[in-house]
Specification:
Length: about 325
């Protein structure tokens, strides 16, 4: 089984100004002359982690990590003003031009897969290949699956009860609106309590087997606040997308090769989403991981992702 590459540090760190007041944190690792690949983190609002550098052979890849607006080391933290899907798409194009990258590969999981697909549909000429994990198509029923009464809540009723605790009975009539009021309200303690409940629900459902490392990361206050506020902001606004927008525009990226990796027991983004994407994308291959859920850190997901990046590097070398 493949495991993560050894820990590495960035060889360059950038702060890229986009729309006021947003400033993006961008780092580069690995080989400055290698194959450009950009890591697109999940959430929206989760931010990058050090282990995200380790899915790629550092001798073969120019590894680019970007903290999206409002999260990670980008500033201002947890800012939802001027933070939409369209902003994030354009931010990636700003970063590509800033780094003087001609074409790059996209590596994204969960919301990162969503953003990768949307960026590729907007700028197909700039994308050489895509590796996507835990596909999230951001349709309204995909959002309702995880934040409504009839989806993941039926598999995790105990965890769902904890998720609902910050909300009154009245607020539970519209969970996203109720949470948004808490997460943007004046009471600092109520904001943090809501953020940890929101983020904890996601962290506890992310893996097939419970992982204290994953849960602790989701409950860390800095991460919890940006993840909860930004996710709630996006999902309350239908992810700023038209209904079925991604699948309706797959013709725009039909020629881009794609590898889709998805855990069979993914309870955050059920496998149906990856399968629908695969059926709409003739130049893709789908790998269903039989003993995994949603998280990128699960051993079998790590194995599949590194096999995919190694295979892509080999393919790119053959084309060179």
């Amino acid at each position: 089984m493949y495991t993560l590459y050894p820990d590495i540090r960035p060889y360059a760190v950038h702060t890229v100004k986009v729309d006021v007041p947003h400033v993006l944190y961008v780092e580069e690792c690995g080989n400055c002359d290698g194959i450009p690949i950009v890591f697109l983190h999940g959430g929206p609002g989760a931010g990058c982690e050090p282990y995200h550098r380790r899915f790629f052979d550092p001798d073969r890849y120019r590894i680019i990590l970007v903290d999206q607006r409002g999260c990670g080391r980008s500033t201002p933290h947890a800012q939802v003003k001027g933070n939409t899907t369209q902003n994030l798409i354009e931010d990636l194009e700003v970063v590509r031009q800033y780094l003087k990258v001609d074409k790059w590969a996209l590596f994204g999981g969960s919301w990162g897969a969503t953003l990768g697909l949307l960026y590729a549909q907007a700028y197909p000429e700039q994308v050489s290949a895509m590796i996507l994990r835990g596909v999230f198509l951001a349709r309204q029923h995909d959002i309702a699956w995880f934040y409504g009464q009839g989806g993941a809540s039926r598999f995790f009723p105990d965890l769902w009860e904890n998720f609902l605790k910050p909300l009154s009975e009245k607020e539970r009539e519209n969970i996203l609106e109720g949470y948004y009021e808490k997460l943007t309200g004046p009471d600092e303690l109520a904001r943090m309590s809501a953020a940890k409940a929101w983020s904890g629900w996601e962290g506890r459902c992310a893996t097939l087997r419970p992982s204290h490392t994953v849960i602790d990361h989701f409950l860390e206050p800095h991460t919890a606040m940006s993840l909860a506020r930004i996710e709630c902001h996006y999902f309350l606004n239908h992810a700023f997308l038209e209904p079925n927008q991604i699948l309706d525009n797959m013709d725009k990226i039909a020629e881009i090769p794609g590898t889709i990796i998805h855990g069979r027991y993914d309870m955050i983004c059920p496998l149906e989403q990856a399968f629908a994407l695969y059926e709409s994308w003739s130049n893709s291959e789908l790998h269903i991981i039989r003993d995994a859920g949603h998280a990128a850190s699960e051993p079998s997901i790590v194995d599949a992702l590194i096999r995919a990046t190694d295979e892509l590097a080999k393919h790119m070398d053959e084309l060179a």
